């Protein structure tokens, strides 16, 4: 058995040696109250920090079982511990040499509460996964400083992070109950025929386009119109009221800068739970809701976009449409069909990020350009069919075309960030000012045919998988290939990108055989992750992964140019 005393002695012995001497640290070390596992040692001070884990028995941590008695509570507890470790680690951090020397860090959570690999809790133990920047001066081991960091600072950090008695019990309880109540509402949307819920009192505006924290000054608390107000009785906080958005076709209208896109953005991220104080804790959305937008320049592989686009010039097929450089309309059509293929039940569309010619063709344009000269069937003529034939609802921000009044079930007007139910007025206007617009695209939406997934150049058994990395919050790099996910707006943390990248490599090695449909592959992969965790997909236990949905994984697959 190797103890913390042995670790301190070893670090002192290798002081001032070549940085590679740190390789001897890999292994397990028993401390008085926990076990330290060093899984991977970095190659030099400027390389990715070393991967470590802490395991503490519940006899020391003493978390009451009711705090992780169901999946909602367990995820919330793990999220809280991750945030606690991050806060305390930042207060203890000291610079101890070159590169990342002195770093002790865990994946940094945002406003969303996600199922992450950074913290694990069971009846027997608690595990935290983090990284350490082993200190050096130049390329020489700073053994004395490393001993202080691992044998002195780390125990203090763990003492303030992994013991229930050291935490704010009320804040932890609130964190857990907030998640449990939001999940409860999400589970009960369908029985009330709703696709989304926005609680009274919610604060929807954010500080900026790159800062997801709530706007504190001049923010207006959300209040539901009476005609759309619904109530839920949550297991912890009891009754909560707010605006329910019914299944079907919903328009969000209003003047510029009155909160249309802000409301849609909150609904879009309502697939996730949020931390107490975020303002959107009880903005809850059907988990199969997918944001759709135009995406000029993306690649498309054999997608049947014929419900929206046909008879292209030069006789190009639209039942198996492929391109390396999609237009706005073809990309938006493909994005919808791909989302439906993956199982989407709600589409979220904002006219500001949509292709205009894909959304509407008014009566005057129909008169000028005959239908047999226009390959695009606009979304207005398919949105109702999607709901009646496939049960797929749509929430659409539309400020520029009243033609959509004819196909909407619900119309919500935003004024000064407050919603009003104007469905009756919109329907009356539609009758009073008939557009004489001719419906296009036929009586049915069209078929949805799942595609078979295969790899363009299948790897041999001897091939090493390509290296993976992520860049910012929008790009995965696998070997020399980049996968641009900047238009996939429901990815909220880099940890999700890292997890998607690892899953793609696992998929490449095990699933892309030209025999399974894409939905079947998604079912299989998500089942493995749900039952066995991400550790089943990787060589080492990873602490910087966060769970994604099948829709974001499908989006990455559909933009991976190596796949067919």
Task: Please explain how this structure is put together.
By secondary structure, this protein is α+β, with helices and mostly antiparallel strands. Among the domains are: 4-167, no CATH class; 468-558, no CATH class. Helices cover 29% and strands 21% of the residues. The chain is built from 14 helices and 27 strands. Strands 1, 2, 3, 4, 6 and 7 form a six-stranded antiparallel sheet that branches. Helix 1 runs antiparallel to helix 4 (143-159) and helix 7 packs across helix 14 (550-558). It is globular and about 85 Å long. The mean pLDDT is 93.
Task: Outline the secondary-structure elements.
Layout: H1 4-13, E1 27-30, E2 35-40, E3 50-57, H2 58-61, H3 71-92, E4 104-105, E5 112-113, E6 119-121, E7 125-132, E8 136-137, E9 140-141, H4 143-159, H5 169-187, E10 194-199, E11 206-208, E12 211-214, E13 229-234, E14 238-246, E15 249-254, H6 260-268, E16 273-274, E17 283-285, E18 289-292, E19 300-303, E20 321-323, H7 328-342, E21 346-350, H8 356-359, H9 363-368, H10 383-390, E22 393-397, E23 410-415, E24 418-421, H11 423-432, E25 468-471, E26 475-478, E27 481-484, H12 494-510, H13 518-532, H14 550-558
List its traits:
564 residues; alpha+beta; six-stranded mixed β-sheet
Short summary of the structure?
Helix content is 29%, strand content 21%.
Q: Averaging pLDDT over every residue, what do you get?
A: 93
Please state the CA-atom Rg, rounded to the nearest Å.
26 Å
* Number of alpha- plus pi-helical segments: 14
Unreliable parts: none
Please outline the major beta sheet.
6 strands, antiparallel
Percent helix, as a range, is: 25-40%
State the distance separating the first and last CA atoms: 51 Å
Query: What percentage of the residues does DSSP assign to strands (E)?
Result: 15-25%
* Structural category: alpha+beta
Number of strands: 27
Tell the overall outline: globular
